[in-house]
């Protein structure tokens, strides 16, 4: 994690494959996919070029609600988001906010996000591998 609270993991798969793997993993775990935002398609729609760049927004109230009960403003950072993007060398990258950083942002103890952190880290490692 860098000072911005972001974690980036490189994947040997294409961005499309990473997104497909993420969607399947969410479905298998019963986690709701709220939105899929394709920034590259949006850029193309106005005549601009952008390497593959897609955000997936997802969550499970059982995981996020305890943080929001501690401080409802956490709802600005939840549900969770994963950005799958292609870097300048054509490699797929997966970036997400560290839930411990989110907890600290609101003055909560890191431990408040331990379960969410472990689940998200495991999910990203599985889809990016």
Write up what this structure looks like:
The chain is α+β, with helices and mostly antiparallel strands. It has a single domain (6-128), classed as TATA-Binding Protein (2-Layer Sandwich). It has helices at 15-29, 39-45, 61-70, 99-105, 114-128, and strands at residues 6-11, 32-38, 53-59, 80-86, 92-97. A 5-stranded antiparallel beta sheet has the order 1-5-4-3-2. Strand 4 and strand 5 form a beta hairpin. Helix 1 (15-29) crosses helix 5 (114-128). The two termini are 18 Å apart. 23% of the residues are buried.
Short description:
Helix 1 crosses helix 5.
Provide mean pLDDT, rounded. Answer: 94
Rg measurement, Å? 15 Å
What is the CATH architecture annotation?
2-Layer Sandwich
Q: Which strand order do you get reading across the main beta sheet?
A: 1-5-4-3-2
How is the CATH topology named?
A: TATA-Binding Protein
Number of structurally distinct domains: 1
The backbone outline, from C-alpha atoms, is globular
Note the topology.
Elements (H helix, E strand, L loop, with lengths): L5 E6 L3 H15 L2 E7 H7 L7 E7 L1 H10 L9 E7 L5 E6 L1 H7 L8 H15 L1
Antiparallel strand pairs: 1-5, 2-3, 3-4, 4-5
Helix pairs in contact: 1-5
List keywords for this structure.
single chain, 129 residues, alpha+beta, TATA-Binding Protein, 5 helices
């Amino acid at each position: 994690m860098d000072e911005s609270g972001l974690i980036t993991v490189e994947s040997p798969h294409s961005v499309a494959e990473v997104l497909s793997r993420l969607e399947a993993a969410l479905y298998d775990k019963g986690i709701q996919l709220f939105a899929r935002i394709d920034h590259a398609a949006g850029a193309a729609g106005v005549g601009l070029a952008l390497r593959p760049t897609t955000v997936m927004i997802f969550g499970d109230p059982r995981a996020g609600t305890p943080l929001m009960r501690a401080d409802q403003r956490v709802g600005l950072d939840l549900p969770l988001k994963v950005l799958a993007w292609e870097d300048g060398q054509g490699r797929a990258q997966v970036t997400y906010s560290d839930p411990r950083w989110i907890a600290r942002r609101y003055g909560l103890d890191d431990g408040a996000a331990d379960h969410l952190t472990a689940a998200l880290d495991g999910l990203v490692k599985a889809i990016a591998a």
